């Protein structure tokens, strides 16, 4: 925490979202030490065994048998998630050279670097499913795999960096905390660390906005303008409404997803209302109000037609993001060649010592 002037959602009674991450981590450790009865016998019905593991809330590990569709779904989701982390470095990276102070610049640099690290954990998790990082990166560059819609919006002011931390990382945490209990072990374990770091990212964004919202009138107006532009795209991050979600039902049955897109979107709205009040900023939805019966806020849904346009490549920055990524990939080719040559040299040296 940066000061005692505001509280973050993780400080909520009962531990909040970080409390859920700690509980998921404890469950993962317990699952790792639990005996599984030696796994399936030679004549076992593998499908039934897989279903039993899922039912018992145990983890599927890379060497376990799994249905091909489960493997494909995981590769799709984890790869999309990894690509989002990598492309997600661009909108904020845009402000590193223009951060308002040395302290802000150092924090932003570290945050953007963290996103690269998240991409690496996730590519590594995907590789346990029998696909290589090179293949996945190529699928992104060829436009055959997606990344989150949110990173196709421009960062127009310094306040956008604050809003990305507060709303975008906030939405990411709400979506990712349940993934810490995903049925696939490597993905669940990667999510524990990602969520802890995202929680810090959210606080830094919230603190930037808190400073701006309590600064000059111009600073407050800049913060409000950023919230106005990012609110609905952040709601759209959770995906299409449940009725239009192609993968949710199956992913939930497999315990990859634990909640539907709409359930998580609602949870996010409920979390943001009080935080916006503390910031002194207004969420740009005139129909946002407490519903006593549902014990949740009613809100205006994002424009899902816009989400579909952005996903299909027609967002404000899609072309720019992909061009930048392709250029960075091409310009970084020599680094990959050098790293591979160095790794080969070290392994030859190790073999020579062992011989
Ligand atoms: N953007 O059946 P549905 C971050 C696609 S990074 C683009 O509901 P599912 C950060 C979906 O893929 C945060 N595409 O799908 C980084 C599917 O298309 P395909 C990234 C979207 O998978 C840097 C189709 O629409 N987080 O936080 O059950 C700096 C139908 O959707 C989107 C993750 O990736 C979208 N918003 O649910 C700062 C979390 N929504 O594949 C911050 C992991 C939907 O059939 N992913 N689509 O062609 C998930 O939890 C799920 O994949 C989703 C979608 C909730 C996103």
TrEMBL record:
List, alphabetically, the GO terms of the cellular component aspect: cytosol
* Example of a GO MF term: phenylacetyl-CoA 1,2-epoxidase activity
Q: Which Pfam families match?
A: PaaA_PaaC
Name the residues that span the membrane: none
Q: Which InterPro entries match?
A: Aromatic_CoA_ox/epox, Ferritin-like, Ferritin-like_SF, PaaA, PaaA_PaaC
- The organism's superkingdom is given as Bacteria
Biological processes, Gene Ontology terms: phenylacetate catabolic process
* Protein name per UniProt: Ring-1,2-phenylacetyl-CoA epoxidase subunit PaaA
Native organism is Micromonospora haikouensis
């Amino acid at each position: 925490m940066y000061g005692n002037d505001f509280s973050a959602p993780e400080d909520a009674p009962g531990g909040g979202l970080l409390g859920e991450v700690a509980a998921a981590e404890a469950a993962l450790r317990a699952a790792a030490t639990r005996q599984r009865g030696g796994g399936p016998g030679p004549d076992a019905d593998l499908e039934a065994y897989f279903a039993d593991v899922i039912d018992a809330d145990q983890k599927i590990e890379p060497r376990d048998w799994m249905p091909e569709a489960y493997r494909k779904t995981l590769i799709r989701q984890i790869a999309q998630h990894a690509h989002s982390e990598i492309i997600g470095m661009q909108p904020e990276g845009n402000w590193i050279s223009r951060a308002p102070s040395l302290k802000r610049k150092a924090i932003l640099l570290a945050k953007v670097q963290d996103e690269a690290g998240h991409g690496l954990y996730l590519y590594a998790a995907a590789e346990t499913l029998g696909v290589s990082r090179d293949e996945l990166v190529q699928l992104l560059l060829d436009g055959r795999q997606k990344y989150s819609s949110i990173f196709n919006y421009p960062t127009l002011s310094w306040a956008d960096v604050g809003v990305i931390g507060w709303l975008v990382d906030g939405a990411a945490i709400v979506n990712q905390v349940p993934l810490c209990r995903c049925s696939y072990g490597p993905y669940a374990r990667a999510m524990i660390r990602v969520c802890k770091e995202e929680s810090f990212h959210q606080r830094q964004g919230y603190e930037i906005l808190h400073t701006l919202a309590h600064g000059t009138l111009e600073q407050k107006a800049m913060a409000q303008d950023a919230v106005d532009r990012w609110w609905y795209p952040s709601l759209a991050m959770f995906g299409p409404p449940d009725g239009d979600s192609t993968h949710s039902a199956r992913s939930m049955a497999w315990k990859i997803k634990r909640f539907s897109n709409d359930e998580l979107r609602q949870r996010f709205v409920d979390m943001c209302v009080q935080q916006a009040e503390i910031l002194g900023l207004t969420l740009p939805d005139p129909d946002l109000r407490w519903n006593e019966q549902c014990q949740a806020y009613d809100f205006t849904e994002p424009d899902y037609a816009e989400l579909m346009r952005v996903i299909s490549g027609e967002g404000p920055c899609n072309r720019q993001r992909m061009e930048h990524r392709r250029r960075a990939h091409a310009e970084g080719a020599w680094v990959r060649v050098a790293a591979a040559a160095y790794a080969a040299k070290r392994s030859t040296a190790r073999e020579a010592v062992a011989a």
